[in-house]
Structures are given as C-alpha cells and as structure tokens.
Design a protein that fits this description.
- The protein is of the alpha+beta class.
- About 30% of the residues lie in helices and about 25% in strands.
- Strands 2-3-1-6 form a four-stranded antiparallel beta sheet, with helices on one face. A two-stranded antiparallel sheet has the order 4-5.
- The longest helix has 11 residues.
C-alpha cells in the first residue's frame, strides 16, 4: 500500500529549506508509533527523494530519515509535517544540532559527521 503525505503547509518550501544549512539532509520525524517500521518510512518518505539511511527509535517516539540532498529533505518536511504515519500525527523537521551530535556518537546519519 502506497502512503502519501498531506500535512499542513504553514511555511513555504523556501522557508523550510532556509531553516537548516545546505549540508543538512536529515529529517527528524517525531511522534511515531512503537510499531512503525523501516518499510513504513520508505513508503511514506520515499517519493520525495533518495533515502540513504533510516534510524528508528520507536521506543522513544522518533526517527531520522537521511536523504541524498538538502532539497529532498526540505521537500519531505514541507509535504509530511502534521500528516499521519501508522495512525499517529507526526512532526517533521530538519535534524537539530543536538540530534546530529547524538547520531554521530552512535553511528553517522547526520550532516557533517563521520567523514
């Protein structure tokens, strides 16, 4: 089953892209269900660009989706923030500096680390 994003678009795509550096291609997805799988993420987020990594912390209620480019990540945020994923309303935004440091210490997925 193919899932589509249809979240609220309170900001323009350009405004979302400007919230993070062009090197940030990782998306934070908050409010996920404990039963959310990698396949759910690939179905929901795969149409917005090439996904290079997915890290799921379902027990904590969030995940990270890394795209090949900043533009792809920004588009996914614009389309998916506030939409449904496996029965829960998700919050989608660019990876924060705090999470970037966490991911670099636990296996690289963020921008600018582990090169």
């Amino acid at each position: 089953m193919l899932m589509f994003c249809a979240g609220p678009k309170h900001m323009s795509l350009e405004e979302i892209a400007a919230q993070a550096t062009v090197f940030n291609s990782t998306v934070y997805v908050g409010g996920i269900s404990s039963v959310t799988t990698e396949e759910h993420f690939r179905q929901k987020f795969g149409s917005f660009g090439i996904i290079t990594d997915i890290r799921i912390f379902a027990d904590k209620g969030y995940a990270f989706v890394k795209y090949r480019t900043h533009e792809q990540a920004s588009y996914a945020i614009w389309k998916c923030n506030g939409s449904d994923l496996v029965g829960t309303n998700i919050k989608v935004r660019h990876l924060s500096e705090h999470h970037q440091i966490f991911l670099c210490m636990n296996g690289c997925v963020g921008y600018g680390c582990c090169h």
